[in-house]
Amino acid sequence: MTQNIQLAQFYGKSQNYTQIPRELYSQYGVKRGLRNEDHTGVLVGLTRIADVVGYKRDTDGNKVNSDGILYYRGININDIVNKDTYSGYLYEEACFLLLFGYLPNRAELREFCKTLSDSYQLPDDFLEMNLLRMPGKNLMNKLQHALLTLYNYDPDPDNTDVYQMLGKGLDIMAKLPSIACYAYMSKVHYYDRHSLIIHYPRKDYSTAQNILSLLRSDGVFSDAEAKLLDILLFLHADHGGGTNSTFTNVVVASTDTDIYSTMASSIGALKGPRHGGANIRASKMMHAVIDKIGLDASNEKMEETVREILNKTFPQTDGLVYGFGHAVYTLSDPRAEIMRKYCGEIAKKKGLEKQFDFYRRFENVAKKIISAEKGMDICSNVDYYSGFCYQLLGIPQDLYTPLFVVSRLVGWLAHNLENKLYDGRIMRPATKFVGSLEPYIARKDR
């Protein structure tokens, strides 16, 4: 953007009139970032969909750190993932559970998967007109654009009846994997001059299988790879109503706007590096660390590197060690624990144990140093291992956060519908005016 001297002057002068002193927040009891003094979130609603447990309370009501637990409809995610046999469609099973509140039997899951697969196909000319002819530089922005464009293909797009919203939401869920993969293929074809490869989704494939098939030139993948991606989608499906993108969805949906606008707003929230975009930041950071110190680096060298990142002396860092710390979890993030286990299995099969060992050692070193620096327990989070998992699957970095969208859309939909059913009011919080009252000065006298 061309430097505008006048605009810069206006902005500089405005600081004399717009500043809000920090102490006013505590004076008026305003919770900055909707956070309490002990860093817990301010309650803004009720839900039966998911529960994120990162701490407990003692008999005096004080916060006590604990190992993290994530519940989907009251069921510990570890109990779902670690069941005796894996038969695929784990993500779809979680979608059913989150939306309808109970675990489906085989027939119900089969019918639910058929509902999704029957909607895999994109509308006529959608691929050509909206993705191939209009490639996007940023895939998250392109996903927003694509969802808003789907509005035009819906014969009744502004119908916000809860049952109608459920149907529309499932239709978007079914199409989103193809849209994300095609948006990527279109981008690298147009901007990077790569060959354009387009596969069509298969009705006999799960969401995870279709993503791998759509992205690979030969469409071939192993059962182990499909299982890992299925688990990744499962782990990202929901994280309670307090996440920024889910809260955004409920706020926007409370105005009774269409579902396409609502979901596009959540994508905008998820894009940011403090939310879903952190998975790319974590992956880039780890690549930079490995490039600099090598896979054989000692723990002492890792400690030195972590301190460089914290002190902003490591190249292209902002003082944050991405993949560590969480707004709720304290001692552990259950999603990261599960990812560590399963990506370790794939790494072994692919002969990448050395890379996995580096991640494991760096994780231990970073947790120790950051916890000491901050004076509080810090754990690795879901973003730390997700990038490595995607790397093991050969998924390009550009798609890390879009695949987060593909997975999380069901959570957005579930909270959207729940709020419509059992709250129903427009979200309307308040702010406290702390400016001074001033007289109007006629333009000629200013």
UniProtKB/TrEMBL annotation:
Q: Which GO terms describe its cellular component?
A: cytosol
One GO BP on record is: carbohydrate metabolic process
Report whether Transferase shows up as a keyword of the record.
yes
Q: What is its EC number?
A: 2.3.3.16
Which UniProt keyword terms apply here? Acyltransferase, Transferase
Q: Does the keyword Transferase apply?
A: yes
Q: Which Pfam families match?
A: Citrate_synt
GO MF entry, a single one: citrate synthase activity
Q: In which pathway does it act?
A: Carbohydrate metabolism; tricarboxylic acid cycle
Question: Which family does the similarity line name?
Answer: Belongs to the citrate synthase family.
- The protein's name in its UniProt record: citrate synthase (unknown stereospecificity)
Q: Please name the source species.
A: Megasphaera micronuciformis F0359
Q: What is the lineage of its organism?
A: Bacteria, Bacillati, Bacillota, Negativicutes, Veillonellales
